[in-house]
Amino acid sequence: MKFFWQRDRDVREERHSAFSGSSFGASSMALLMVAPTAPAGAAGSQAGMTVSATVLKHVSLKVLSQPSAVVVTAQDVERGYVDVAAPAQVAVKSNSTRGYMLEFANGGDFMRQIVVTGLSSDVQLSPAGGAIAQPAAGTGVTRATFQLGFRFLLAASTRPGTYAWPLHLSASPI
Predict the structure, then answer these.
(1) Domain co-membership, 97 together with 19
(2) Nearest to residue 166, comparing CAs of 116, 92, 100?
(3) What is the dihedral of CA 72, 75, 76, 77, to 10 degrees?
(4) β-sheet bridge partners, residue 3
(5) What CATH number did the domain enclosing 138 receive?
(6) For 168, phi and psi rounded to 5 degrees?
(7) Cβ(84)–Cβ(150) below 8 Å
(8) One pLDDT digit (tens) per residue for the chain, 174 residues
(9) Which of 31, 94, 106, 118 has the fewest CB neighbours in a 10 Å radius?
(10) CA distances from 151 to 70, 72, 116, 127 (A)
(11) 52 occurs within a structural domain
(12) Chain centre to alpha carbon of residue 154
């Protein structure tokens, strides 16, 4: 493939190609122009190419186990809170060097505050839930497993009974 430039009397540049008007395509021509070629008889010729990639931050969360319900007894209502007997176990995998956010969304209306244990310190969340920053555990892909405990401080209108598990957990990179 040969390209050449011609100048006419109006000093206008025109580009001509052997592939003009064909279905060969501009992207194919660009690829051919970039592809290294060795001159005939040039044994041992080398060509270099620089390749770079951007690795996007990623975090994945897998709930290994969690309670399916919260049982609130008359004693819990009298005391003002209920401790969830079985912890939730979650596994997190991340490549973010800045860490990630664990996000708790509350779908229940029987509590006025949520206390989460099992992280570096106990955390109090609003009835809507909240997010907790977790630092990176190192470089590259890191993995962590958490045993999370919960105490739900009950709303004044809460009655004894069995409530569906209210929390939805997700994670996002920082």
Answers:
(1) no
(2) 116
(3) 90
(4) 17
(5) 2.60.120
(6) -120, 125
(7) yes
(8) 444 444 444 444 444 444 444 444 444 444 445 555 555 556 667 888 899 888 889 999 999 999 999 999 999 999 999 999 899 999 999 999 999 999 999 999 999 999 999 998 899 999 999 999 999 888 889 999 999 999 999 999 999 999 999 999 999 999
(9) 31
(10) 10, 11, 7, 12
(11) no
(12) 33
In this prediction, residue 64 carries a pLDDT of: 97
Q: Do 145 and 73 have their domain in common?
A: yes
Is 68 in the same domain as 136? yes
Closest CA to 161 of 87, 89, 74: 74
| Burial of residue 15 (number of CB atoms within 10 Å: 0-12, 13-18, 19+) | exposed
Using the Cα atoms of residue 78, residue 81, residue 83 and residue 88 in order, give the sign of their dihedral.
positive
Q: Which two tokens stand for residue 18?
A: 């052997």
Q: Nearest 5°: phi and psi at 27? A: -65, -35
Which residue range(s) make up the domain with 22? 3-34
Write the CB contacts of 108 (distance below 8 Å, at least 6 apart in sequence). Answer: 70, 152, 163, 164, 166, 167
